[in-house]
Design brief:
Helix content: 40-55%
Shape: flat
Strand order of the largest sheet: 7-6-5-8-9-10
Radius of gyration: 31 Å
CATH topology of the largest domain: Rossmann fold
Oligomer: single chain
Number of domains: 5
Strand content: 5-15%
Distance between the termini: 65 Å
Bound molecules: NADPH dihydro-nicotinamide-adenine-dinucleotide phosphate, pyruvic acid, magnesium ion
CATH architecture of the largest domain: 3-Layer(aba) Sandwich
Largest sheet: 6 strands, mixed
CATH class of the largest domain: Alpha Beta
Structural class: alpha/beta
CATH superfamily of the largest domain: NAD(P)-binding Rossmann-like Domain
């Protein structure tokens, strides 16, 4: 199944650079001699003594609480069989990588030369002081059952054999959803399970607990059907032995079956077998890396099929990766002594339910999909869906607390959710808070470029999330065609085409525009023409006349083309004589505001003052206390030249006219954001103590370059440009913005409209 170049790519991926996939990274400073005396002798003796006094302090002073052992003996590696511990190491390193990227859990992978139950159990038990949890992996049945049973009984930290329970949880969730879509009852389905090993047995037990009847299940191992005449079956497998006498082969069993579960080996199911199944069948071919029947063949065989595999390169990846990172996250965070049935069932339901919620745009983008939604090709969430971390870990942690296995009780679940969000990538707390505020009072947002897929997708998201009521401007046929082709659900949203006959209020708008621009060369005829031909004029009039609360445009147009109509029709706020643009940069160190990044090319001293005042006020609207630095290449007079001198002059005016404003400069950017550096060198600065969170650039060039570099090289998320100074909420997208960026801008536009409505 793997194409030759894929095989080579995979080998290169593992061998290039530092061999393997994971490394150990220090978490404390190690730059100075002092740091090292803390990290090692003599400083390290102090936490040692504390732990010796109270063994639970090991969680306080060491990495134990966030450290999981991924342990295998290489006896059932994926579907590759008993290939030995060394050969299993790439898989175990892979699990370590997934634990880290999805749930911020650190992993040591341990590949043991230990085949017997006693040997394996004794080694793992002795590791208890080091780890917060143990993930057993790719150990063949039946040894794995006894190993897990003993370790759970004899250890006081959570132990889970992932191939058994991780797989059971995920496939259980997928099965519930697939049955719902195919209109089948779990209690009535006829199921064939191919494989009778660790994964198959545990998954089947889970299906029984979800409602499947054991008499409706037929299981196979490599020797054929498990029936009551077999004399080679242990007790665990005997419970799945069928009474049916008409079934000898897999082909026999597949006839009329509703569900096929493959946890065996690659390519053992034929298209004919699929054809013989009942109407609307479900096939989970989960053997890795090669499924029992490959996705393309299976899904081409019949239209009424729901097909899933364990692979990431096809729709419906039913793989334990959706479970183990989040299950252990929840278990570690409440310091659970075990992962029990309650926690597993809670995880399965959380995963099943998450599939039915609207999919964040970031997930669509990550998978190059247009509109993922619950259906035949999306029966289970995608592993890169960051909501899994909160939804599943919280469900697991709550179940641990409620079932009495938690040693640490969480009471503030919202704070725990915030903590989880902060663990992965950027901390988007501010963006989330903005979205929450927007949803409290959603506004009507007119989209001037609605004949564009990205705009329509964003409109769908803000509508679904209750952030805004979209109004779409553009050719209705074209918009409806895109909606239909991309299966968006915007049927009830207002579409206005300014070019059509009988456009609402066009006469009033034309009269208004004519009155405003008659002494600037605009005739009545031209005013009407502008409104019909340029949707930025029509959209701005809608906002001015109160037919909409905010305007979003600029995805396909130059900035000036949007801002000009807004300035002509709506104008600036009272007492404000210019507009400016600001970016909210979501950085790993928190939010930082950049301005002016958009409008004023080469501001004079007075313009710099005006821009600073506008931006400072706007930062307050995000419930953040602004600490403003005016940037230059000079620190407090260290260099001459028009830029530092102008900036210095602007700071002087700001200090005089706005004594309460926390603002200083001119200063270099590193001094502005490194408060230690500033304090050591310029202790007189009014910014001392805390870094600046609002950076004013001396000109458009420097502001624009800075935010783009931070976005591309620093991995910061840029939200903006947020247009400041207009009387009403109008916001201009960057040319080619992503759907996520558009959604962010709409959210900001709604907040802006709320605030402007409050001020008027
Ligand atoms: N998608 C996912 O998340 C997961 C997928 N898997 C996949 O499931 C498979 C089994 O893994 P696991 O349970 O850990 O391994 P085990 O070695 O414990 O079990 C393998 C089972 O498959 C049976 N088997 C092998 N070949 C055939 C065949 N041709 N026909 C019928 N049965 C067969 C074996 O029979 P016998 O007992 O007679 O040897 C055994 O019962 C692997 O391919 C693995 O990659 C596993 C975990 C998670
Ligand atoms: C996914 C997994 O754990 C396996 O195939 O073994
Ligand atoms: Mg496995």
């Amino acid at each position: 199944m793997n194409k030759p170049n894929r095989k080579l790519d995979a080998l290169n991926y593992h061998s290039k650079g530092r061999p393997g996939k994971i490394q150990v990274v220090p978490t404390k400073p190690t730059n100075s001699q002092r740091d090292l005396t803390m990290a090692y002798s003599p400083g390290v003796a102090e936490p040692c003594l504390k732990i010796a006094e109270n063994v639970d302090d090991v969680y306080k002073y060491t990495a134990k609480g966030n450290l999981v052992a991924v342990i295998s003996n290489g006896t059932a590696v994926l579907g590759l069989g008993n290939i030995g511990p060394e050969a299993s190491k790439p898989v175990m390193e892979g699990k370590g990588l997934l634990f880290k990227i999805y749930a911020d859990i650190d992993v040591f992978d341990l590949e043991l030369n230990a085949k017997s139950v006693d040997e394996f159990v004794n080694i793992v038990k002795a590791l208890e002081p080091t780890f917060g949890g143990v993930n057993l992996e790719d150990i063949s049945a039946p040894t794995c059952f006894e190993i897990e049973r003993r370790l759970k009984a004899e250890m006081n930290i959570p132990v889970m054999h992932d191939d058994q329970h991780g797989t059971a949880i995920i496939s259980g969730a997928a099965l519930m959803n697939a049955c719902e879509l195919q209109d089948k009852k779990l209690s009535e389905i006829k199921m064939v399970v191919n494989g009778a090993g660790a994964a198959a047995v545990s998954c089947s037990k889970m299906y029984l607990s979800l409602g499947v009847k054991v008499e409706n299940l037929v299981m196979f191992d490599i020797n054929g059907v498990l029936d009551k005449n077999r004399t080679d079956l242990d007790d665990i497998r005997m419970q799945f032995a069928t009474n049916r006498t008409d079934v000898k082969t897999l082909s026999d069993a597949m006839k009329g079956a509703d569900v096929f579960i493959g946890l065996s080996a690659g390519n053992v199911v034929s298209p004919d077998m699929l054809r013989s199944m009942a109407p609307n069948p479900i096939v989970f071919a989960m053997a890795n890396p090669n499924p029992e029947i490959d996705y393309e063949t299976g899904s081409a065989t019949r239209d009424d099929l729901i097909m899933a595999t364990g692979r990431s390169d096809f729709p419906n990846q039913v793989n334990n990766v959706l479970g183990f990172p989040f299950i252990f996250r929840g278990a570690l965070d409440v310091r659970a002594t075990a992962i029990n049935e309650e926690m597993k069932i809670a995880a399965a339901y959380a995963i099943a339910e998450l599939t039915k919620k609207p999919v964040p745009e970031a997930v669509n983008t990550a998978y190059n999909a247009k509109n993922l939604k619950f259906g035949k090709d999306y029966i289970i969430p995608k592993p890169m869906d960051q909501r899994l971390l909160t939804e599943v870990s919280i469900a697991v942690a709550k179940a641990a607390v409620e079932s009495g296995v938690a040693r640490k009780v969480i009471t503030d679940w919202d704070a725990y959710a915030e903590e989880l969000q902060g663990r992965i990538g950027k901390d988007n707390r501010l963006l989330r808070n903005i979205a929450v505020s927007a949803k409290q009072n959603p506004k009507r947002v007119v989209f001037a470029e609605a004949d564009n897929y990205k705009i329509l997708r964003a409109a769908q998201i803000v509508k679904d999330e209750g952030i805004a009521t979209p109004i779409l401007l553009g050719n209705a046929d074209k918009i409806n065609q895109i909606i239909e082709e991309t299966e968006l659900e915007l049927g009830d949203v207002a579409i206005i085409d300014p070019r059509a006959d009988n456009v609402p209020q066009i006469d009033d708008y034309a009269k208004y525009l004519y009155q405003k621009r008659q002494r600037r060369g605009v005739t009545m005829h031209e005013a009407r023409k502008l409104l019909i031909t340029d949707r930025n004029y029509y959209g701005a009039c809608m906002v001015q006349f109160g037919e909409a609360d905010a305007l979003i445009s600029g995805l396909t147009k130059n900035y000036v083309n949007v801002i000009k109509p807004a300035l002509q029709i709506i104008g600036t706020e009272k007492g404000v004589n210019r507009v400016a643009g600001m970016y909210l940069m979501v950085t790993p160190k928190g939010p930082v505001f950049f301005g002016d990044t958009t409008v004023n090319v080469d501001p004079t001293v007075q313009e710099l003052v005006d821009i600073t005042v506008l931006i400072e006020r706007s930062v307050r609207q995000f419930n953040i206390s602004p600490r403003v630095a005016l940037l230059s290449y000079s620190n407090f007079g260290s260099n001459d030249g028009p830029i530092p001198e102008g900036t210095r002059e602007a700071v002087k005016i700001l200090h005089e006219k706005y004594p309460d404003m926390i603002v200083d400069g001119e200063m270099q950017a590193n001094f502005a954001i490194n408060s230690e550096l500033l304090k050591d060198n310029f202790p007189f600065s009014t910014l001392n103590g805390t870094p600046a969170n609002t950076l004013i650039f001396p000109n458009l060039e420097s502001g624009n370059i800075a935010y783009k570099l931070l976005q591309e090289l620093g991995g910061a998320e840029a939200v903006g440009p947020i247009l400041l100074g207009l009387k009403k909420s109008v916001h201009v997208l960057q040319l080619g913005s992503s759907v996520r960026e558009i959604v962010n801008m709409v959210t900001i536009a709604v907040l802006d409209a709320q605030q402007k409505a409050g001020n008027n």
